[in-house]
Amino acid sequence: MTTAPTTHGDILTAPAPVFRKGLALKQEVAGELAADYHSALIDRIRAADYQWQVGRLRLRLARESGFCYGVDRAVDYAYQTRRRFPNRPIYLTGEIIHNPQVNHRLRAAGIQFLSDPECDTDSLDPNDVVILPAFGVTIAMLTQFQRQGCTLVDTTCGSVLNVWKNVLQFARDGFTAIIHGKVRHEETQATASQVVQSRGGRSLVVLDRAEAQIVCNFIHDGHDEVAFLARFGRAVSPGFIPHRDLQRVGLANQTTMLMSESLAIGEMLRLAMLDRYGHKDLDAHYRAFDTICTATQDRQDAVALLLDRQDLDLMIVVGGYNSSNTRNLARLAGRRLPTFHIADAASLVSNHELRHRPVDVGQPALPAAGISETCTTDWLPADRIVTIGLTAGASTPDSVVGQVVERLESLTVEAD
Ligand code: SF4
Fold first, then answer.
1. Which of 151, 193, 369, 411 is close enough to 138 for a disulfide, judged by CB 3.0 to 4.6 Å?
2. Domain 70-157 CATH assignment equals 3.40.50.11270
3. Do domains 37-68+295-414 and 159-292 have the same CATH topology?
4. pLDDT digits (tens, 9 = 90+) for 390-415
5. Exposed e or buried b for every residue in 249-268, given b needs 16+ CB within 10 A?
6. Torsion-angle region of residue 88: left (phi > 0), alpha (psi -120 to 50) or beta?
7. Which CATH class is domain 37-68+295-414?
8. Can you give the pTM of this predicted structure?
9. Would you name the residues annotated as active-site residues?
10. Ligand 1 proximal residues by C-beta, below 6 Å
């Protein structure tokens, strides 16, 4: 436990207890975590070289899937917090991770969500404990909790801290941080808030190649600042002046974006700067740091490997509909195969009917507000062996994936 902020700058005025390395109760909560999120079936499938065969079902599980190290740690700390402070109110700023089952369990354990309308953040006091999620919080939120004297349990993932370190360095060196991410995503909001911590720090969030192209056009032509600000008004830091702030830019990513798209955006920006300033001055105008985390990358690579087998009939991706990394796994697969992003086993209604989130093939995942569910019929090939690729986002527990496998088994048996 510390009482002085070390990773969030020096603007905090009222240090409160902060737990950043757990609460020394790891062993005590291990059994509870295993009971809630572990799956013996998924363990068996992994031990069987990630392949499973029952009746006419052939299953190929991605070699990397499910909980990442950051999520594992965040959920572990939340359970430890409940154990350590049984008689104090405990709050999450919002979803600890983007998975409905995990959030539901935390609510059931009595942890409250400040994002709920009935919770009043302004009334928090030193008796309250606040858990900061894996994707971090904005400087403004952190400052408020510190001023209110709340005990903090900081689960911000090390990979997110790495993004913050890089964008802060951009700011110190006079480069505007261009963040490839989703402007409403908690992690990207937290990252953008880090940038303005440094005097003169600026940021701009771009969602996709289409938005990057607008930025590149401005770097090249730079003649319509009003239109630019109208387009990116919510995505820029306060006081952003395109003519001034797009002369020197550094690219970073929300940790869960699609690697191929981030690389493409980086190349577009590099070429725009090259075109504008020439080869000799390129380093003074453009920098890039790949800040997509290893867990995200490993899960995307594992899906690519599965798709290369070329023996799959369809792909199922399990995870929260608002989970960025899950949606990107579905996008990867959806470009090559019929792919269904499902929330859990209940989405597999029958061997005729399946509820799922449409996959955003060819375009970036829609903002959270665009979440919707649709129903597809006759999704499961009948009367023959069916080979299904299966993966799960970094916020999906094995227990949920195990239930999906059990449901698939029962559906393929029923269809025999
Ligand atoms: S997806 Fe990456 S950055 Fe996010 S919590 Fe997991 S490991 Fe950390």
1. 193
2. yes
3. yes
4. 999 999 999 999 999 999 999 998 54
5. bbbbbbbbbbbebbbebbeb
6. beta
7. alpha beta
8. 0.90
9. 187
10. 68-71, 134, 157, 159-160, 255-256, 293, 295-296, 325, 394
